[in-house]
C-alpha cells in the first residue's frame, strides 16, 4: 500500500522530538520535508532538508509549498526572552499558518504544551475545554498559536490538532515526570493519530503516556484515536530511589505546569 | 441453571439484526417469541413465531401477552416515506408500549439510532444527555420512541434501554464505519446487557464496538454493564485501501449521522 | 411604518389563546390568515379565515401558501385519546412543517408546553437544554414537534421557536397557577418576540409571566427578547383565600407538569 | 529500598478492613501503629499496638505523635444510635484531626462511605463533586468528616483522601454487592494509592472494584492513581443462583446506598 | 384573613436576628413560640416564651410539640470552642430535627451561613450546588446541619430551607459588608419566603441583599421566591470614607468567608 | 471626598472611546495621564498628555511609572494588517504589562472585544468561560492579551478586567447594533466598575448595554458590579425603518462577531 501522504513538512526536525518524529513519520509519507534553523544530521533517502528561520515569512511560504500536512514542532522549546518568543513562536507560527493558507495545506499538527494551561491545579482534572492559564511567556506563545489556529479553522478551513505535550525527554529529572511523561514512542503515536484521524476540525489533546496518575481528562479528544501504549511505572522504583519527593503543596507540585510556575520573568533573568 | 427469562419477545426478528439476536438471546430465555411482518426462516425449537404488523394494535396487544421482556427491533430500519414512518415506527412502537403496559411487561430494549442525534458534530463528544437532533424522518421517529418510553417509565414504571445503534452491518461500505460499526456480536452483548442489568430505569446508551476513534461518550450508561469486545482495527487496512477518504469537512463527515444528513426529504424523492 | 410581515398564518385561531393572539398580532402583519377546525367569530378586516383540519395534508399545503410566518397554536390543547393526539398534533404538525418547507416559509412559532418536560422536579430548575420528560401523550406530541422542528431547521433552514407555555387561562383554578401562569398579554408578548427576534435558529423558551416563584431557567433564550410584564402577585391573596394549599410533596406539587402527572392513560379513561 | 514512611497510624485495626490493611500496609512503613478499642490479635514484629477510645482527646493526641500518616478506619462501621455516632465518629474523628494538626501529620486517608451519598440514584452516575445525600446517621457522620477534613486542608494544610467505600465484605449477601463490592485486595490498593500519590490535597474517591456495572464516576480522582484489579464477575453465577433479584424500582435498588435507605431511625429501633 | 400558620417556633429568639424575626414573622402565625437560652425581653401578646438549652433533647422535644414550622436560628453564632460548637450547634440542631420528626413538623428554615462555603473564591461565582468548604469549626457545624437536614428530607419528608446568611448586622465594620450584607428587613423577607414557598423540598439559598457586587449565584433557588428589596449602595460613600480598602488578594478579600479564613483554631486561642 | 486614585493612565485616549473615558474617569483620579500616538485635543487641567507609540518599550516603561491603575484602550481598533496587529496590539500590550510589572501597578482594565469570541453562535449564550474563537487577526490579538494578562495575574499578582466590548459607536450602521451596542455612558460605567470593584483577580466581562436581546451571559462577572443603564430600544423604530433586516442564517447574523466573520485575510486585501 502506498503511504497516506505524498509530502509532510516537519518543522523543528533537528530538535529532541523532531529526531524521533523523523523516524516515526517515515511510513506515513512518500517524502518528509524536514526543516530547522540548524543543519539536520543523517538525512535519509525519503527526506528533503530545508534550512529555514521560521521568522522569515518568504522562506516559510516557499517551504510550505506542495505539502499535504504540516507537523509544526519548531520554535523555542522552553521559557526564554520575549524577543525570542515573539520571533520564533509567535511570528514563526503565524508564518506557518499563512504558508498553509496560501499553499492549500489542509491539516496541521501543532506542538502545544502543558504550559498553556500550567496554572491549573493538579486536582482540578481539567479537560481540553479549560481556559488558558499559561505559566510563562513560552506558555503564552502556545496559547497564541492555539487561538490563531482556531481562526484558521473557523475562517479558512485548515484543520489543526494542538497536542499539549507534558514532558517528553529521555531522562527523568524529577518525580513529576512519572505522571507527566510522554515517551518518544507515544509522541510518535500521538502525531500519527493526529495526522490520520478522519476529522479533527480544531482539536486540543493532552499528551502524556498511559501513566498511573492521570491529572487531565482527554475524553473530549476521543475522535483523534490516540492510544498511548507506554507507562512510566517500570521507572518508578529507580526514579523514587534517586530523586526526592516534592512537598505536595509546593507551587511546582500544585500546578500542572510544574517548575515553570517558579520561574521569574525571563527578561529579568537575562540581565543578571 | 435455568434461563433468566421465561419468554422474551423479539420484534423485527426477520431483519438483519433480528437474525443475530435470535441466536444471541437464545440462552437468556426458555422461549423466544419472534415476530416480524414477514415469515421467519429456520424456526428453532425454542422459538415461537408471530406474524404481526406492528401498526395493528390488537395484534400487538395479543403478541405481548405473557412476555417478560421485549426486544423491540421492528419497524422501518432506514429513511423512508412519512406514511411508513408513521405507521411502522410511531404507531407501531406506541402499540408495543401499550401492549407492555396492559400486559405488565417490565422492561423493553429498544433499537434507537444514531440518527436521533445525527446533527451533532463528531468533535462535540456528546454524552447520552445531549438534545435530540434527528437527521431524517427516521431519526424523528427514534426520538419519538425515546420520549414515549420516558413517559412509560415515569408514569407507568416500565423500564427501557434505548440503544442508539450507529452502524451494524456485515460489510464496510464507507470509511465512517471504521468508527461507527457495532459488530453483530457486540450488538448481542449490548442487548444482553440491557436485559440483565440490575436497574435500567429509562436509559440511553450508544452502540458502537470498541473502535479506535470514539466520537461519543457512554459514561452515563455504566450501569448497563455493556462492554464491547470487538474493534474495527483489523479491517482498517482493507477498508482504507478499497474506499476513498472523505473530506473531513463534508457534511457527512462533520456530523454523527453520516450520509443521512445529505438525504433530501423522502417524500420528494418518491415523486421522482 | 408598514407592518413587519405581509401575511402571518395563525392556527388554532378559534381557541382560547388564538383569540388573544388575533388581537395581539394584528399590528405585525398586513394580513392575518386565521385558521381553525371551527368557524371563527368576529372576523376583522385584516383577517382572512381558513376552515381547515390540520390532518388534511393538501388543505394545509394550500393554507400555508404565500405566508411569511406561521404561529402554530392549533391541535388538541389537552390530554386526550391517542388517535386524536396522533391526528391533530402529530400528523397535523407534520403537515404544517411540510407546508412551510414546500412554500418557503422561514419561521414558525410553535405552542409547545410545560408538559413536554412535566416530570422534571420543581426544585431542579431546568433550563431549556433539559431532556424531554413528557407527562402525558399530549406532552409526547409536544416533544415530537420540538424534535421535528429541529430537523426542519438543521436540514431545511426553517427557524422555529418552541414556546413551552405553562398555564394561560383566564381563571385561577389551583394555587400552582400563581407560579405557572402566563397572562394573555404576556403570551402575546412572547409570540411577538419570537416572530421579530433577529435570529432564532431552533430555540426553546419557557412561557410564564414574571411571577414571584421561578421554577425554570430561561437564560438560554435571551436572544428571543421576551420580557414578561405581568405577575400573579396581585391575585395571590384572593387565590390563597379561595383555594387550599397543596401538600408540597404530592406528585402534582413535586413536578413541573402539575396535575398532568396524576392522569392515567387517556384511552383507559375513555372506556369507563 | 527503605519503606516510604517511618510510622503509619492505622485506626480501627481490629476491624474487618483493619485486619487486611495491617497486612497490606506493612511494606509501606517501618512501623505500623495499630489502634482499636479492643485488643488486636496476632501482633506482628513491625506493629505497635495502642488501645484507644477515639472519643478520648488526650489519648488520641498521644497516639498521633510521631506519625507520618494516618489511615483512619476507626469508629462505628454501620448505622447505630446517635450517641454512638456522635462519640465514635464525630468526636472521634475530630480528635484524630486535632492530633494530626498538633503533631504535624501531613496526610490522612479516611474511610468514608457510599452512605455519605446514598440517596443519589444509581442511574445518575454522580462524580465526586456530587452533593452530600446521606442515607443514615452513619452517613451524616461520614459527611461531617469529609467537611471537617476539607477545613483542615484549606486552613491547616493537612491532606486527606476520603475513600467512599461501597461494600467490602468477605461474603455476598445480596446481588447489589456484584456492583458495589470492593475486594479486600482492592481496598489495600486504594489505601496504598491514597498514601503514595504525589499530591492529594483534599480528594474524594469512590471505592469499588473494577466491576461490570459502574454506577459512579471516579474520573475526578485520577490523580490518586487507584487501579482496581479485581472484579465480581467470577462470583456472578453463584450469587445469582443463590440470591433473588431485587425489583429494579425498589428503594434499595434505586439508590446508591442500598438497604440503608430502608432503615428507620436507629433510636426508634433501639426502643423496640 | 387568618394567618397562614397556627404556631411557629423561633429558636435563637433573643439574638440579633431573632429580635428582628419576632417582629417580622408576627403576621404569619397566630402564635409565635420564641425560644432562647436567655430570657426574652418585651414579650408580645402573640408570643409564648420557652427557656431552653438546645443541647437538652427532652426539652427540645417538648418545645417542638404542636408546632407547624420551625425557624431555627439558635446556637453559637460565631467561631468558638469545639465543645460549644458540638453542644450548641451539632447536638442542638440534631435535637431540633428529632423534635420535628417526632412531632410531625413539616418545614424548617435554618440559619446556615456563608461560612459553610467560606473557602470558595469571590470570583468563582458558586451556585447553591457548590461543595462545602467551611472556613471554621462554626462553618463545619453549618455543613453538618445542611447534611443532616438533607437526610431528614430524603428519609423522613421534612422540608428545610438552609439560608446561607452572609452578614446581617446593624453596623458596617469593614468594606466587605458592602457586598455581603443582608439587611434585617431582607432577612425577614428571606425567612418569610422560605416559610411560604409552595414547595421547598431541601433547598439552599444565599442570603444577601440586592447589593451591587454579586459574588454568588442564587438562580437555583428561584422556587423560594426571595426578592431582596434593599441595597448597600446608599451606605457606600460613608463606609468607604471611614474604612480602608482591603488588598484585593489578601485571604479575607479573596474568599467568600472574609476574615473567618484568617482565624486560627479556636481552641488554641482559648488557651492564650 | 478625595478621588479614589492618584494617577490613572489611559491609553488610546485620542480614540473614539478614549475621548469619552477622559470625561468619565475624571472624578476617579486626581490626575489622568492620557496617552496616544497622536496629539490629544482639549487637554483638561486634570490631564497630563503623553505622546507614545506602544511598540516602544522604553517609552511605555516611562509612561507607566507612578501610576495606580491603567485603562488600556490603545492599539489598532479594527482588523488590519498583521504587522500593525503585531506591533500595536501584541508588542504594545506586552509593553504595557511589563511597565505595570516593573512599576508596581496593581490593576489594568483592558479593552478586549467580542472579536475574541466572534465565531461562537448567537444562540449558544456563552458565558465568560467560553473558549476563544477569534474572528480576525484583530480578535487573535485580543485573545493574546487576555492570555498574557492571565499570566501576569497568576504569576505577578497584577489584576486585570478584560472588557469584551461589542459595539460602541455613535451611529447605528446595521441592525445588529440594536443588540450589540454599549453606549458611551455604559462604557464609562463598565470601566469605572472595573477600576473600583473590591477584587477582580483576572476577570472577563461582556460589554453591552442593557439591550432587549441578550446574546451572552455575564453572570460570572457579578463581582465587577457593572450595571448598564442604557438600552437601544428607543432607537429601534428609527433603525429598523432605515436599515434592512439581515437573513437570520447569514454568517454575520449567525455569529457573535457579526460582519468580521465575513472579512477575508487583511494582508490579501492590502494587495488589491
UniProtKB/TrEMBL annotation, chains A, B, C, D, E, F:
Keywords: NAD, Oxidoreductase. The keyword NAD applies. Residues 8-169 form the NAD-dependent epimerase/dehydratase domain. Pfam families: Epimerase. The keyword NAD applies. SUPFAM superfamilies: NAD(P)-binding Rossmann-fold domains (SSF51735). Belongs to the NAD(P)-dependent epimerase/dehydratase family. This is NAD(P)-dependent oxidoreductase. It comes from Ollibium composti.
